[in-house]
Amino acid sequence: MQRYFVKNIQINNNLVTILDLDHHHITKVMRMQINDRVEVCDEAENLYLCRIVNISKKDVGLEIVDKISSNTELNANITIALGLTRTSKIEEVVKRITELGASSFIPIEMNRSVVRILKDQNLKLDRLKLIVKEAAEQSKRTKLMEVYEPIKFKDLLKQIDNFDYLIYAYEEAGKTNNNQMKNMVKKFKNKNVLILVGPEGGFSLEEVNELNEHGFVAVGLGPRILRLETAPLYIMSIISYELEINL
Amino acid sequence: MQRYFVKNIQINNNLVTILDLDHHHITKVMRMQINDRVEVCDEAENLYLCRIVNISKKDVGLEIVDKISSNTELNANITIALGLTRTSKIEEVVKRITELGASSFIPIEMNRSVVRILKDQNLKLDRLKLIVKEAAEQSKRTKLMEVYEPIKFKDLLKQIDNFDYLIYAYEEAGKTNNNQMKNMVKKFKNKNVLILVGPEGGFSLEEVNELNEHGFVAVGLGPRILRLETAPLYIMSIISYELEINL
Predict the structure, then answer these.
(1) Could you tell me which of A210, A97, A193, A229 has the C-alpha nearest to residue A153?
(2) A75 touches chain B (CB under 8 A)
(3) SS3 assignment, position B130
(4) Is the dihedral of CA A91, A93, A99, A103 positive or negative?
(5) Taking the complete model, does pTM exceed 0.90, yes or no?
(6) Taking CB atoms and an 8 Å cutoff, what residues of chain B touch A99?
(7) Residues in contact with B35: Cβ distance below 8 Å, sequence separation at least 6, in sequence order
């Protein structure tokens, strides 16, 4: 069933008002009619089964029929920090890690980033949020992944007290099989985890030293060199596998 | 270091001749000079360190300096069969699963495929092979993933004797937590494994019945609904995680 995320102010008692892009989606894309059913998710992760009771040119009115219990959220708060790169690659990563259950995404300007904040960065936060919303609706999440404006590497280091685990994906760790990932992933349940994936050129030696000094653990993602678009997906997949797939 | 896959006929004693797109890449993209070094991988997965000894308008001559040992290939033969869909999505999957170590890829026309073989399918095998070659070079593989022309679902069922394990990714299995993936993945070492991911609309009931009759095992990939572009990456990531990342 089609799912839509709404703001709490769109809900009034047992009535929900759908506006703008979602109104367009219901009326023009899905061509739904009165009495058709949709799911609605509010900002507190409540999920409702709703029935269309009114369609006008500006809004769609829904009546809440039932509250649904859902358990599709990953039981770990994973923040993916990604070396700032071209917008198309960031959008691709944002879409996929939303599907895979990440909690937050933040682009980081690093020494070897091919794109610089302000200078040539044209990342639109509104567009990223729309990508997150659509991916969350499609993948049946009940929570929207947070996306943040790009920050500099040194500013990321100031925020690390918010996290229980600090990790960076480092290809040298993958080559030497000096791998801590398996040990760590099992401990992520209900924890706040920050995972940093470097830009195309990788981490500079200076950055590696700073990460190590700040308590980040280097992990490898196997013997092949993964592109920066692939590495976050590998990480989110294995976290889901360890925490969500039971024997 | 830059890596290039070559045909065996390009190697004559300790000399390698580089032509066409790779010639262009070395001379125009990388702007390499005499004495610069590259890696070359032949059809038997031999990897050589080479030195540029000659550059002309048509070819680049390399001298083999050393044989390199490499261990970047996944120790399981994984064939990803994907419900036939739009070419851009197939190209995306082919690129990513090459990085992640898959052995073969084959698109399958299924009941709910939005694209049909012959009618509106414009998949170019040459273009897919080029994507595989570039992704394999970049990810430091020594073997090229095989890509095949699309076939019909019933023709896939005729080929299953070639495989030790038959699996299909089924979202209903993910919802109910009836999950066999963890049990199975550990057994994939040195085995031939066929993994089928359905098209956008999922499997038809008829297809599910046929798969079950032919001995395919349904596996879930967690509680969220993954897009068909994401599911093969999830699968390849967890296979790499189980077989390649040691404690």
Answers:
(1) A210
(2) no
(3) helix
(4) negative
(5) yes
(6) 224-227, 230
(7) B51, B52
| Alpha-carbon torsion angle B57, B58, B62, B68, nearest 10 | 120
A202 and A154 Cβ atoms separated by less than 8 Å: no
* Diameter of chain A measured on Cα atoms: 62
Question: Is residue B175 scored above 70 in pLDDT?
Answer: no
pLDDT, one tens digit per residue, over A25-48 is 999 999 999 999 999 999 999 999
Q: Which residues of B touch A237 (CB under 8 A)?
A: 233-234, 237-238, 241
Report the complex ipTM: 0.92
* DSSP line for B191-227: -EEEEEE--TT---HHHHHHHHHTT-EEE---SSPPP
Query: What sign does the CA torsion over B148, B151, B156, B161 have?
Result: negative
Contact call for residues A174 and A223 (beta carbons, < 8 A): yes
Residue A234, chain B, CB below 8 Å: the answer is: yes
Q: Around Cβ A211, how many Cβ atoms within 10 Å?
A: 23
- The 10s digit of each residue's pLDDT in A211-220 is 999 999 999 8
How many angstroms separate the CA atoms of B26 and A63, rounded? 64
Q: Please list every residue in chain A whose beta carbon sits closer than 8 Å to the beta carbon of residue B177.
A: 246
Strand A47-55 relative to strand A60-68, pairing: antiparallel
Taking residue B53's Cβ as centre, other Cβ atoms within 10 Å add up to 13
**What is the total residue count of chain A?**
247
Return the structure tokens found at A79.
Answer: 């923040």
Do B230 and A181 count as a contact with CB atoms less than 8 A apart?
no
CB contact B246 to A (< 8 Å): yes
